[in-house]
Design brief:
Blueprint (H helix, E strand, L loop, with lengths): L1 H10 L6 H8 L4 E5 L5 H9 L3 E5 L7 H9 L3 E5 L12 E6 L5 H11 L3 E8 L23 H11 L3 E7 L5 E6 L9
Parallel strand pairs: 1-2, 1-4, 2-3, 4-5
Antiparallel strand pairs: 5-7, 6-7
């Protein structure tokens, strides 16, 4: 596990939200990650030692080191080398972490399609950096207009009543954590 902590500590200056993210990961048994990025979110999930981590990444990447860390620590690690939107369903999960395509329509689509498979949390990376303007490289087909991530998050919250904001870390690059309320007294903890 030392290699995990060393890698995380080297990246915390550019992404300090990952420390609170680890704390949220410790509350769950299954974490599904959408998008690999630079691998920091996967390392943080591994550091929390859940039972299972499921990763969806459409780009070809080498996950052998992550698989080895998972195996050494008794964590089931499942890798799907596809875009998550190619799947009608996903495995039931406690947390869905979205770290891909920093654009509001994409966030809304992923959240609305897969929220039914998420029992507790949806975490959205880069929610500050691309809050009002999507990432520059994002282009939508059929003349669609890319929108900032906050608009996709808000649209999801307006249409899916059991989901609420648990935490919004609004400093660069940002992390928004949503939680599914089980009942009226549920505060997300």
């Amino acid at each position: 596990m030392q290699e995990i902590y060393d890698a995380i500590s080297q990246n915390l200056t550019t992404n300090p939200q990952m420390l609170p993210f680890i704390e949220w990961c410790r509350r769950v048994n299954t974490i599904t990650i959408v998008g690999f990025g630079n691998g920091l979110s996967t390392l943080c999930a591994l550091a929390a030692k859940p039972e299972t981590i499921i990763l969806y990444e459409h780009n070809p990447i080498d996950i052998s080191e992550y698989q080895e860390i998972a195996t050494d620590n008794g964590i089931k690690f499942v890798f799907h080398n596809t875009q998550i939107l190619e799947h009608e369903t996903i495995e039931d999960t406690d947390m869905l972490f979205i770290n891909s395509f920093q654009e509001g329509n994409y966030i809304f689509t992923v959240c609305s399609r897969y929220a039914q498979f998420v029992s507790r949390y949806i975490a959205i990376q880069d929610a500050y950096s691309f809050a009002h303007q999507p990432a520059a490289q994002v282009q939508l087909g059929n003349g669609g207009q890319p929108i900032g991530m906050v608009f996709g998050i808000n649209h999801f919250l307006q249409n899916y009543d059991p989901w609420h904001i648990a935490e919004n870390l609004y400093w660069e690059p940002g992390l928004t954590l949503l939680y599914r309320r089980k009942d009226l007294l549920d505060d997300g903890k």
